[in-house]
Amino acid sequence: MENTSGVGVLDKVTSILTTLEAGPATLAGLVGATGLARPTVHRLAVALERHRLVGRDLQGRFILGPRLTELSAAAGEDRLLAAAGPVLTQLRDVTGESAQLYRRQGEVRICVAAAERLSGLRDTVPVGVTLPMKAGSAAQVLLAWEEPERLHRGLQGARFTATALSGVRRRGWAQSLGEREPGVASVSAPVRGPSNRVVAAVSVSGPIERLSRHPGAHLSQAVVEAAARLGEALRQA
């Protein structure tokens, strides 16, 4: 192997990932491309699959896994946060409601940026607060486009259903009524990174009495447009 680091297992893992960068590969293909022993390749590939650094396609071939995309998206977080301030402020001003940006971290979502409504009754979500992935329109958005196994696991104990998430994927936005907190409604849309993977959720939230029981009908367009602007900021980096 070329460009060895002196750490054998790391060099072997890197050679497998580098091979998969060119496209899907069978176990035999990985053995041939890396020059490693078949048992070694199998052991490392399965371990990488467990950590989601490697996945499988419909033919059972090894492919690069979703965790690599997530790590790449995390590297772009500074760009996302830099763009979030003005975008959320504009969203708040257009809708008249508090606006937030959430990112998923394990089994919770974190509010990483917010623009609060300046007066009147509002839904305050402090930056840095963690909220469950089991309720709320932002949780729906962050879960709806996950791979099937993770989606199925995320639905266990959730206040929304697989049917609801199917509707989210079809519409491109989610709404919730009292899911996270009684009396609070919200509308959220996905922010997509350079690989088109959902990396964050933009939301507006406020009292149901003001947002109505169908908040998506009059807020979804503004939220989707804000999410698109943040996605564009990531792709331009």
Main β-sheet description: 6 strands, antiparallel
| CATH architecture type of the largest domain | 2-Layer Sandwich
What would the principal axes of the Cα set say about the shape? elongated
- CATH top level class name of the largest domain: Alpha Beta
Q: Between the first and last Cα atoms, what is the distance in angstroms?
A: 33 Å
List how many beta strands DSSP finds.
8
Detail the poorly predicted runs: none
Oligomer status: single chain
GO molecular function: DNA binding; DNA-binding transcription factor activity
InterPro entries: GAF-like_dom_sf, HTH_MetabolicPath_Reg, Tscrpt_reg_IclR_C, Tscrpt_reg_IclR_N, WH-like_DNA-bd_sf, WH_DNA-bd_sf
Protein name: IclR family transcriptional regulator
Organism: Streptomyces rubellomurinus (strain ATCC 31215)
Walkthrough of the structure:
It holds the Pfam family HTH_IclR. Residues 7-66 form the HTH iclR-type domain. One of its GO terms (biological process) is negative regulation of DNA-templated transcription. With 237 residues, the chain is of the alpha+beta class. 49% of the residues lie in helices and 20% in strands. It has helices at 8-21, 27-34, 38-50, 66-75, 77-95, 137-144, 148-155, 162-171, 208-211, 216-236, and strands at residues 54-56, 62-64, 98-105, 108-115, 130-132, 174-177, 184-192, 198-207. The relative contact order is 0.12.
